[in-house]
Design goal:
It holds the Pfam family DUF8026. InterPro entries: DUF8026 (IPR058339). Keywords: Membrane, Transmembrane, Transmembrane helix. This protein folds into 2 domains: 43 residues; 51 residues, no CATH class. 69% of the residues lie in helices and 0% in strands. The chain contains 4 helices and no strands. The chain starts with a helix and ends in an 8-residue tail after the last helix.
């Protein structure tokens, strides 16, 4: 029993629709991880948050000062700020002005 032309079109279309984005995502992820490893090897540490993620973390810390996870969030925020000030080349797209404007969060804020 031979498959119809429509069945072949659907099978090939399914393969293209599923595999092309999957392979693209895999290649991009591997390139990003390779870049992170390269930066980590060269600098000893890398930034852990993108500008947007660090901004959102700061907003969360300021909005939830009494939360049980606030000390951990503050510690991670401060670690990322310190790292950004120490490294030459960040992984995420940080501008020099944005890095210079970053300040650690004190307990009293």
């Amino acid at each position: 029993m031979a498959l119809s032309t429509a069945a072949w079109v659907v099978m090939i279309g399914s393969i293209v629709v599923l595999w092309v984005p999957a392979v693209w995502a895999l290649v991009r992820t591997l390139r990003d991880e390779g870049r992170k490893l390269e930066l980590l090897t060269e600098q000893g540490k890398i930034d852990t948050y993108s500008p947007q993620a660090l901004g959102e973390l700061r907003e969360w810390i300021e909005a939830h000062p009494d939360d049980a996870y606030e000390p951990e969030a503050r510690r991670r925020y401060n670690e990322c700020v310190e790292t950004l000030h120490d490294i030459e080349e960040p992984f995420y797209e940080w501008s020099n002005a944005a890095v210079e404007d970053l300040q650690k969060l004190d307990r009293s804020e």
